[in-house]
Amino acid sequence: MGRAPCCDKARVKRGPWSPEEDEQLRSYVRRHGIGGNWIALPQKAGLNRCGKSCRLRWLNYLRPDIKHGGYTEQEDQLILSLYSSIGSRWSIIASKLPGRTDNDVKNYWNTKLKKKAAAAAVVGATGGAFAAPATPPALSPASSSVTSSSGDARFAAYPPQPQAQQHQGLIRFDAPRSTELAPVPPVAQLGGAAWASSSAAAGGAVAALDDDVFLPDLVGGGAVEQLFPYGDFYAGLQDRALELSACYFPNMAEMWGAAASDAKPQGLCNTLT
DNA sequence: AACGATCCCAACCGCTTGTTA
DNA sequence: ATAACAAGCGGTTGGGATCGT
């Protein structure tokens, strides 16, 4: 049995918002705020819309601080870099771009940046010089960190997980530069995605791994080799963990769980959410 | 001018996560 | 402990705009 719909679809308006509805929602939020309850908001605001739809309209379009279009080269580079580091975590990526929404960044990626990255990959694979930044430009102090909690603010052009599902259980370590690394596999083995050849073309893969590494899992789990091409490097990770300077967990629960089981390395740890 | 192809983005859908009773 | 609910999130889609022939 599925969950009940958030509202009666037969009785609420759907589809594009009219300017009148926009103004109704905008003026209501201006006067009362969102009140922490989107479900109740449409009725209070006199809108014949689903609360979920109101939330989306406000967050993605009506909020006063939103920028539309006109992405700068710096923003492009930051998105490319973050995507290569954390994959399609659009809300996290958008949070590093002031005035951008997750939906906007996602659309921008799907319609433009993905092609740009692919084109750059072709150039890179043929000896071109697309340079993925080992450390992307910091647009503002608020945009300097992958984490939403405290912590280290380094990025890396590193192989992302092939599938979104594989971000589940993602754990990232920032390895010290002295850490000895396994040889970086040829680009062809990394799945052919833009990040691989682009970072490799720029010599970025090695440098990046020297700095930051995500792991699909901290300990055990035979799938690591499938998901992560540098599995050898992390053989016996429990021992090596002490060499690592910082780590990132998908959420607090997993971080504390790792800490409780001694899987968490000494040093700074953060969550991605 | 007409038509089809492609691009772009707002909006929807459904799943996951967090909170509360 | 668990069920119900709301919010958050990422994937997908619909349809208008634009481009190419």
UniProtKB/TrEMBL annotation:
CDD domains, per the entry: SANT
Bias-annotated ranges (Low complexity): 140-151
Keyword Nucleus recorded: yes
Coiled coil, from the record: none
Domain Myb-like intervals: 9-62, 63-113
Region (Disordered): 134-161
GO molecular function: DNA binding
Protein location: Nucleus
Chief localisation class: nucleus
GO CC term (a single one): nucleus
Positions of the HTH myb-type domain: 9-66, 72-117
Keywords assigned: DNA-binding, Nucleus, Repeat, Transcription, Transcription regulation
Name of one Pfam family that matches: Myb_DNA-binding
Classification via PANTHER family: OS01G0685400 PROTEIN, OS09G0431300 PROTEIN
The protein, known as: Uncharacterized protein
Organism: Panicum virgatum (Blackwell switchgrass)
